[in-house]
Design a protein that fits this description.
Largest sheet: none
Number of strands: 0
Mean pLDDT: 75
Low-confidence stretches: 28-45
Shape: elongated
Strand content: under 5%
Radius of gyration: 31 Å
Length: 238
């Protein structure tokens, strides 16, 4: 008796079984890849969240040091105080810069989180708040760096002339600081304070009141050298 090998390709039942197995395999593969992608997303999201949280904690840790130095009278500031002040401000500026880099890709998501109870406004305003902190801390670093020397000599007999010469030599840096302060005010103006949590709203309101005064002070300092005649021609001694 002659046996013939069945033609699988022409067998509808066999073909259906093979097709079903292939579809099942592809389905499982897609599910597996989806789970892997989701796992990677969660890992990256957790890593990013940890970096954001770490930077936030570092900034909060620096603030008490600034407050302690801030209550000291200007004439009582020592070289060590000013060096610590600059170090703390530089650290805060670096953390704000890192926060900007981490938050920027999340801005589309943050814009949609206004519905979150209590902190929805904080989340939506996070990019502007971080930009304000970065620009303001950069300006503060410049100002402390350029004014540290004359502030240390505030009790010297020729303190004013030293200050004027220092300010005249620092015109470019003062202009940069003013630009950063103006940018900080622009960032703040984009924030709806009424949507922020109470504690954060209070801090923002204090900064809104302080920034214009600081900007006016820096503008006055930048204009002080010509006001006191540093550009006036000096008599030639015989």
């Amino acid at each position: 008796m002659k046996f013939t090998k069945p033609n699988i390709n022409n067998d509808p039942v066999s073909y259906k079984r093979q097709s079903s197995k292939a579809s099942s395999l592809v389905g499982h593969l897609l599910i597996y890849l989806g789970l892997v992608a989701l796992g990677l997303f969660l890992i990256l999201g957790a890593a990013k969240g940890y970096r954001v949280y770490t930077s936030y904690q570092k900034i909060n840790a620096e603030i008490p040091h600034l407050e302690a130095i801030g209550v000291t009278n200007v004439e009582d500031l020592t070289a060590e105080d000013l060096a610590q002040l600059q170090a703390h401000l530089s650290s805060i500026s670096a953390e704000f810069e890192l926060l900007q880099q981490e938050i920027e890709p999340l801005q589309p998501l943050l814009d949609r989180l206004g519905w979150v109870p209590v902190y929805g406004g904080d989340l939506r305003a996070a990019p502007e708040l971080i930009a304000t902190g970065h620009h303001f801390s950069q300006a503060a670093v410049i100002l402390v760096d350029r004014l540290s020397d004359p502030l240390q000599k505030i009790r010297a007999p020729n303190w004013l002339s030293t200050l004027v010469v220092q300010l005249d030599d620092s015109q470019a840096d003062l202009a940069t600081a003013l630009t950063l302060l103006d940018q900080s005010q622009a960032d703040l103006s984009a924030i709806r304070v009424d949507t922020l949590s109470p504690a954060l709203a209070q801090r923002v309101q204090v900064l809104q009141q302080f920034l214009p005064d600081l900007t006016t002070g820096v503008e006055f300092a930048a204009g002080l050298p010509p006001l006191l005649g540093i550009d006036a021609p000096r008599p030639i001694s015989s």
